[in-house]
Amino acid sequence: MALYIHRPLSFLNYKIGFLNICFKKYSICSLLRNPELGSEIEIKGWIANIRKQKHNIFIDVKDGSTSEQVQVIVSSDLNVNTKELSAGSSIITSGSIVKSPKGNIEILAKKIKLISKCSTEEGYPFAPRKEYSPEYIRQYLHLRTKTNHFASLLRVRNSAVLAFHSAFQDEGVINVHTPILTSNDCEGAGETFKVIPDNEHLLKSMAKSGVHVDEIFFNKKSYLTVSAQFHLEALANGLGSVYTFGPTFRAENSKSRFHLAEFYMIEVEIAFLEELKPLLNFVERLLKKVTNNLLDNNISDIVSCQGINRTEFEWLEKDFVILSFDEALNILNCNASQFKKLANAQNGFNKEHEIFLVKYLGNIPTFIIDWPRHLKPFYMKECKNDSKVLAFDLLAPDVGEIVGGGLREDDFQKLEEKLPKEGVLEWYLDFRKFGGISTGGFGLGFERYLQTILKIDNIKDTIPFPRWPHNCSL
Amino acid sequence: MALYIHRPLSFLNYKIGFLNICFKKYSICSLLRNPELGSEIEIKGWIANIRKQKHNIFIDVKDGSTSEQVQVIVSSDLNVNTKELSAGSSIITSGSIVKSPKGNIEILAKKIKLISKCSTEEGYPFAPRKEYSPEYIRQYLHLRTKTNHFASLLRVRNSAVLAFHSAFQDEGVINVHTPILTSNDCEGAGETFKVIPDNEHLLKSMAKSGVHVDEIFFNKKSYLTVSAQFHLEALANGLGSVYTFGPTFRAENSKSRFHLAEFYMIEVEIAFLEELKPLLNFVERLLKKVTNNLLDNNISDIVSCQGINRTEFEWLEKDFVILSFDEALNILNCNASQFKKLANAQNGFNKEHEIFLVKYLGNIPTFIIDWPRHLKPFYMKECKNDSKVLAFDLLAPDVGEIVGGGLREDDFQKLEEKLPKEGVLEWYLDFRKFGGISTGGFGLGFERYLQTILKIDNIKDTIPFPRWPHNCSL
């Protein structure tokens, strides 16, 4: 009756043995980890370097799977047209896997085919064996992965994402997706972006009399999230400890090397938490675990990214420092001559102060606890008999604050009094009425974490497509 | 000199043995997996059920870490005030771990303390042992995790996130964060949201004469991403195969049970790919691997979420079906009486057609390949000697399309001709000039995947905070 043919995949013809075989098998990374000496292999990649000699051509090939390259030896007997084989060209080569006298894995080419050429004469901005500044490279966002430094950065970034997920899962903390579009301004700092359909026809068809254009689509004004904390608290009040790892937005006119308009934040809310100390300890445990994981599995990319090595990670062997806000302020006041602007209890610390403190304390990540109430948001839990709140910042070498968090006010009356009058936050009280629990949590700036461990000067070089004022390329 | 005290965490006093101990140790999930019979334990959670008998009170406690509950036996000798202990209340209880005659792990309470009560009289919307419709529960987004169904859904969702990540890493596909804010409308369907700072003062301070308000902050109009594909292609042209797993947005006035304004998409771009078949095979391998992983590790949550069990997953043992567009159209035309609206080559298939096709083919996920060129975007690679393109959709039971993808046009001239004149897409051509490679990829709707495997009727019940027209709560 029906004119269709049921053709399960396994009956289709196949050119190469791709079927049901993991893509990874064909990468340079796999080749170098598990070389089967003497066997045939096909490698697809880009030419990193090419050296033409009398009897042989030596081609270093990379394919993005690792910072390492594999050398392909092309005998002149193969009569390869070498004219278009230049650095940056994409090629397919097949040959046998051999070991060089020095012990390196190499490929003795039997066939080599150009996929697509690459030439600086036609505008390719990166010449082989030349170093470029990050600012220069950043002009070519769509070509950045062609540079070794940035490809390494992205591989470390990938491993860090997985290492954070895995560390949370080991602790029984559950991943949730909190909303990007929200009708709340969690931080209340007026740094939100608003969101409206870019379609006059749609807006017209949905319009209602008396409704402002900003409110047509969602029936209320909608913003990009500045923090997922309230949503995390709601979810923790039923699911237990939760975390989210997603994009966060700030409409701030800052072009500093520490700020992005779109950045990634890991936000965590721990359920049934009544003290600050287990939270600080969790942060320390998490950062050490993830960083050790990266050193164990990605050291070649870490070295290739910024040239740093294991000796930069002495802090992993030490306990993080804990200082009260007042103690930190004292240190800064004793070193007043170092700063353009003095620190004070009214305004807290600026970036200059934060970076100084960590350096002063031997480049060990430093928790600042016991914050004056006025420097932290309304929802922070009050210390007993004190004008302080149970909040903390974690300052990291070269970067300053990378984590901020604390315990949440769990006294219903106190919270009700402190709730901002503007904004519709009754729901934030509501889940506390029905079997409410004490929670605490934090937000960790993912790019700042990468900045501190990899010693990257500008945060714009830690994310594939950075967005900041006047810049939303591609 | 300095007035600070270096106090490493390990010297701080500690109330309970929390220090350097994984949070997971204290969960009901851990207790039930590794019970140390006879030893003491402290459990924090919510009362699921309470039965008061003459000599004992039996309390089922849940804490969000698993769909299972643990029974706490409170002897009347303990003189517990049971008045405020009702379903939904949060409690701390400590006691010894025992095994019931039936073999269940239970706690013989020594102490029990109410954290916070919960009562339907004060407005708690969920009575114990009562079933509510998803529509009813959806009215209380901030309380949804207090229901067993939705807590199970979120635990499955968590596991699915991790299973996808792990499946990609096993294949050597690298995770990247593509931008949420972009100056491109990748799909060109006019379903974008535009993004503007919600701060008059900021906009005023950044304003330049002649610049429209939409363009002040980023110097150009900026949108929420509708697809990361172009960015993935750029990254793949240096890093190799890549994927992204993040929020995606569509400003579409649809309240259907298959659409959200904010949803999660897994988008993948495989490098050095010259045929469609390995891509279809990868999709099949991926979905089977992730789903088997969920069945192995989350079966109790899968059952608790929607009451379905392993027998619903027969498709895991079968090869996915592959049909050409024309074959699929033929089937639909042979069954024309089934549809409100006939399918045709001009407009392609609608949801009704998609769901019928999968059912007709025995509820096995079905690839539709060889699409007419006009039904797919400009960047799809053309079949040789044909008006078709090398694109595919994957249709899943009950839901229809969950994956869409194909090979990208790698003929530079052809692509240049087809490039839309509006929109600034030179960069999309540019990375193909310099060692360009053939790639192919797809986008997988994460919520639709959850919908199909868990048989959830409405997509709004697969995500913690659903957003759709007229709805952006919390």
TrEMBL record, chains A, B:
Task: Please provide an example of a Pfam family that matches this protein in its UniProt record.
Answer: tRNA_anti-codon
Keyword Aminoacyl-tRNA synthetase appears in the UniProt entry: yes
Query: Aminoacyl-transfer RNA synthetases class-II family profile domain spans which residues?
Result: 154-464
- Does the record's keyword annotation contain Protein biosynthesis? yes
Query: What UniProt keywords are attached to this protein's entry?
Result: Aminoacyl-tRNA synthetase, ATP-binding, Ligase, Nucleotide-binding, Protein biosynthesis
What PROSITE patterns does the database record attribute to this sequence? AA_TRNA_LIGASE_II
Q: Which GO terms are recorded in the biological process aspect for this UniProt protein?
A: asparaginyl-tRNA aminoacylation
Name it: asparagine--tRNA ligase
Lineage, uppermost ranks: Eukaryota, Metazoa, Ecdysozoa, Arthropoda, Hexapoda
